[in-house]
């Protein structure tokens, strides 16, 4: 929805947060951040950070409660559907996995 206002976008993000669609909320918040930055709307940008922070906090809680999986140097871990926390020296890989997960959700 290219012509959707930032306010309308954030209404949808709030709805996603209430519905516990944390990946959807994060995706909408990131889009809102991009639009607010491009428009120089810094107060709006700051307001968007709060629901984004809450969506990410909820995702971390869910992933932490699910347990921790470690990937060795050789890989060897089959990634199943669910919530994951990626830690350690996998910085670039973690960023790519995070981006792919947000768009797949």
Key structural traits:
mainly alpha, 0% strand, single chain, 4 helices, 67% helix, globular, 105 residues
Note down, in words, how this protein is organized.
- With 105 residues, the chain is mainly α.
- The protein contains 4 helices and no strands.
- The longest helix is centred in the middle third of the chain and has 25 residues.
- The chain starts with 5 loop residues before the first helix and ends with a helix.
Major β-sheet, in short?
none
Q: Write down the secondary-structure element order.
A: HHHH
Distance between the termini: 18 Å
Whole-angstrom Rg: 16 Å
Brief characterization of the structure:
The chain is built from four helices and no strands. With 105 residues, it is mainly alpha-helical.
Question: What's the arrangement of secondary structure elements?
Answer:
Layout: H1 6-18, H2 22-39, H3 42-66, H4 91-104
């Amino acid at each position: 929805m290219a012509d959707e206002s930032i306010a309308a976008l954030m209404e949808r993000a709030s709805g996603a947060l209430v519905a516990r669609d944390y990946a959807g909320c994060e995706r909408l918040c990131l889009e809102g951040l991009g639009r607010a930055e491009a428009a120089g709307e810094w107060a709006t940008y700051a307001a968007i950070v709060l629901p984004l922070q809450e969506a990410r906090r909820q995702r971390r809680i869910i992933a932490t409660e699910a347990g921790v999986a470690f990937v060795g140097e050789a890989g060897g871990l089959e990634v199943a559907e669910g919530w994951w926390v990626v830690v350690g020296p996998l910085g670039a890989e973690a960023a790519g996995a995070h981006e792919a997960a947000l768009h797949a959700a």
